Amino acid sequence: VDIFQVLLDFKTALENNDTANIQLAIDGIKEASGQITQSIAKVGARMQRLDLAKEHMETLNFDIMKVMSVTEDVDMADLITRFTSNEAALKASYQIAARIGNVSLMDFIR
After folding, report:
1. What DSSP letter does each residue of 23-41 carry, written as one string?
2. pTM for this structure?
3. Per-residue pLDDT reduced to its tens digit, 38-67
């Protein structure tokens, strides 16, 4: 229903004192009111979905910032020290494994 046309028809009917068209215009106004109510409900539902999406985005953003903080706030000196220590331990274990692999029965007899 075109609410503006309904209102113009209502105005014209009032000016002409046309009771039949006044009643038709009132019915049109009621129908337009129903359409407005439906539109308001649709907009409200969309706003609610947008609010939920906004909350999810804020939560996701917080989680991303937390992960970035953990990643970027690593103590590089400590990380390098631990890496070097683990690398030295790995090399030592390779050397020990190599020595064990070279042991023969003759080495045990000596």
Report:
1. HHHHHHHHHHHHHHHHHHH
2. 0.50
3. 999 989 889 999 998 999 999 998 888 888
